[in-house]
Design brief:
Number of domains: 2
Number of helices: 11
Largest sheet: 4 strands, mixed
Structural class: alpha/beta
Order of helices and strands: HHEHEEEHEHEHHHHHH
Strand order of the largest sheet: 4-1-5-6
Radius of gyration: 34 Å
Helix content: 55-70%
CATH architecture of the largest domain: 3-Layer(aba) Sandwich
CATH class of the largest domain: Alpha Beta
CATH topology of the largest domain: abc type-2 transporter like fold
Shape: elongated
Strand content: 5-15%
């Protein structure tokens, strides 16, 4: 028959001996933390939003006295921000002005110092202020497909939204000149000229492991499973061998305990340490 006192005594002795074993503590506690740290840094740490280095060149000679000038566009670009998952606000554009020296801006673009160059041609400010079409020249650095597409997409979206805002202001001004008895669809027709298509793009985040917290959670659970598997197999396979290495096997065999007492006692100790290792993994993942 198994004795409860013998089982608890063996389990207590095993727990205390493990506390003194630095190698065992490393594999049960330090190693999971180290592996989780590496996993979090590599896979659970998504890259921060990229800030584009954009050179600005003013070939426009009509900025002086204009209602809305190229300088206003530059100031708007400086204020554009994006908020990260942690709530940190990051500037989208790092604006570098080159005056009217377009060649210097393009030279820096070719050297890789800039991600893009925006050139405001002559007449830009006057055309925007007086209701005409204003032209903007955008040069994007090639050679890296990812950065090229990203810079092209960000700048295209920026000027699209700027154009929509200018169109909205122009239509509001024109509403004041529309006769009161004019059909109501006149304004809608003008809006249709400004925005032939109205597309809405929304971001849908997957419910699985797309977020940083979700990725950390999956890694923590996986690491706990690895500890249970590897450490459990190691502990189970060396129950008797480690007693022989400690030179305590003969004393245990001479003691008034049965083989089941030894097995259950050491199993309880192993389960306790595996529970501690699992708890460490989960708490570290939640930290």
């Amino acid at each position: 028959m198994m004795g409860l006192r013998a089982i608890l005594a063996i389990a207590e002795r095993d727990v205390k001996s493990t506390l003194k074993d630095k190698m065992a503590l490393f594999w049960l506690i330090a190693f999971p933390i180290m592996l989780l740290t590496m996993s979090f840094l590599i896979w659970a740490n998504p890259p921060a939003p990229v800030t584009l280095n954009v050179g600005i060149s003013y070939e426009d000679t009509t900025m002086e006295g204009a209602i809305f000038s190229a300088k206003n566009v530059t100031e708007i670009m400086r204020e554009v921000e994006i908020e990260t998952e942690e709530g940190q606000k990051i500037k989208v554009f790092n604006v570098i002005e080159y005056g009217n020296d377009t060649e210097a801006a393009l030279s820096d673009l070719r050297r890789g110092k800039l991600d893009a160059v925006v050139v405001f041609p002559d007449g830009f400010s006057a055309n925007v202020s007086y209701g005409f079409t204003a032209r903007v020249e955008v040069y994007v650095l090639g050679g890296n497909a990812y950065k090229e597409q990203m810079a092209r997409a960000i700048l295209t979206e920026f000027f699209k939204r700027l154009s929509d805002g200018i169109a909205e202001v122009r239509i509001e001004m024109m509403e004041g000149y529309v006769p009161p008895d004019a059909p109501p669809y006149v304004i809608d027709w003008m809006r249709g000229l400004a925005w032939p298509l109205n597309a809405t793009v929304s971001t849908i985040v997957p419910e699985t492991i797309a977020t940083k917290a979700g990725i950390r959670g999956w890694f923590s659970v996986a690491m706990a499973g690895v500890c249970l598997l590897m450490c459990g197999l190691s502990i189970g396979a060396t129950l008797v061998v480690e007693e022989r290495e400690r030179r305590t096997l003969r004393r245990l065999m001479a003691a008034p305990i049965g083989p089941w007492d030894l097995l259950v006692g050491k199993t309880l100790s192993a389960l306790l340490w595996l529970a501690i290792s699992t708890l460490v993994c989960l708490l570290y993942g939640l930290a």
